[in-house]
Write a structure and sequence with these properties.
Helix content is 21%, strand content 38%. The chain is of the alpha+beta class. The protein has one domain. Strands 1, 2, 3, 4, 5 and 6 form a six-stranded antiparallel beta sheet that branches. The protein is elongated.
């Protein structure tokens, strides 16, 4: 039993509870929309909870893709995932917009006799570069959306 707890603890400290992944490779396809896809972003944030209520450790949204977690703070929320996607999308410039935002929430507590629960929130979005020469589009820039919130 001690070996099991040690291996589980070691896995916890090595794993990342919040991850951000980007893909910028799109096949050469003809896009009907005036907005060209630039990147696909996927954010996954998970945490472990005592009896599914009290957070024990959750993803560190300030440092995603690191081996750190936030202790006793519930950071596994849809809002935090969207903030991480917005932060990554800003790197593509002011003439970018988000589309196809999708979120999945999964909770499970069947392992460990429902004492220790896990909640995973996965959010994905596509970043589009607005091409104002092809069609009349809303010139509401992505950076203004975040500033004006």
């Amino acid at each position: 039993m001690k070996a099991y707890i040690f291996i589980f603890s070691l896995f916890l400290f090595v794993s990342s509870c919040a991850t951000v992944q980007k893909s910028e490779s799109f096949p050469k396809i003809n896009v009907l929309s005036p907005n060209q896809p630039v990147a696909s972003i996927v954010v996954e944030n998970y945490g472990y909870y005592l009896f599914g209520i009290w957070p024990i450790w959750c993803g560190d949204i300030e440092n995603p893709n690191s081996a750190g977690c936030d202790w006793f703070t519930d950071t596994v929320t849809v809002d935090n995932n969207v903030k991480l996607i917005e932060r990554e999308a800003l790197s593509y410039g002011a003439e970018s917009t988000l589309g196809e935002l999708k979120t999945e929430v999964e909770t499970s507590g069947s392992f460990s006799a429902w004492i220790l629960w896990r909640k995973i929130i996965t959010t994905s979005a596509c970043v589009y570069k607005i091409d104002t020469t092809k069609a009349k589009v809303n010139k509401y820039k992505f950076s203004e959306q975040i500033i004006n919130k």
